[in-house]
Amino acid sequence: MAFLKALTVFIVCISIFGVIISNSTTVGNKNNSKNYNVLLTGEIICPFCKRSLVKINLDERGLVQHVWFKCDSHFEISKHLNTTPYIEDYELGFYLWCEGILTGEILKKYVKPTEDESGTYVFNFGKIDFTKTKKRRNRLENTIF
Questions:
Q1: Which region is the signal sequence (predicted)?
Q2: Position 145 pLDDT exceeds 50
Q3: Which of 8-22, 85-99, 105-119 has the lowest mean pLDDT?
Q4: Residues near 64 by beta carbon (within 8 Å), at least 6 away in sequence
Q5: What would the pLDDT profile of 21-44 be if each residue is shown by its tens digit?
Q6: Distances from the Cα of 136 to the Cαs of 42, 77, 96, 131, 139, in angstroms?
Q7: 103 and 95 in contact (C-beta within 8 Å)?
Q8: Which residue among 32, 38, 50, 120 is buried most deeply as judged by most CB within 10 Å?
Q9: Where do the domains of the chain lie, and which CATH numbers do they carry?
Q10: CA separation for the pair 39, 80 (Å, rounded)
Q11: Are strands 101-109 and 53-60 parallel, antiparallel or unpaired?
């Protein structure tokens, strides 16, 4: 009788422990090496105002997040998606702030993702060059009509 009770308790414990282990292995990423599978990257160039900041508006499928970076720097934003990303999943807008004044903007930039050997989808936005936008603006302001 005592043997049957001990056997019953043992079987119940094994079944509960098995459910806990199977649930914990299905949560999170597949290879448990990192907590992201999407990497947004690029380089910000704005030499005309060295003490400025760039605000990046990250629109991820309708959810907007604001991230600040220093000028003349490389940016990396890591995200986790449960599905394969598409071009329109991540839309970035770049806003250059120089001493509290908005002096340049690059709106709605899309990039096609590439997959690296570790399974991470990389959106490389390349060089975000605010010097060209500033020159264009100066050219338009100096035009005589």
A1: 1-22
A2: no
A3: 8-22
A4: 57, 58
A5: 544 443 444 544 568 889 899 998
A6: 22, 29, 15, 9, 5
A7: no
A8: 38
A9: 38-140 (2.60.40)
A10: 9
A11: unpaired
pLDDT tens-digit profile of 85-95? Answer: 888 888 889 99
Do residues 128 and 47 make contact, with C-beta atoms less than 8 angstroms apart? no
Residue 32 is predicted with a pLDDT of 45
CB neighbourhood size of 132 (10 A) = 13
Mean pLDDT in residue range 123-132: 86
Q: Do 125 and 111 meet the contact criterion of CB atoms below 8 Å apart?
A: yes
Give me the amino acid identity at 123. F
**Whole-number Å distance between alpha carbons of 31 and 26:** 11
CA distance 133 to 88: 24
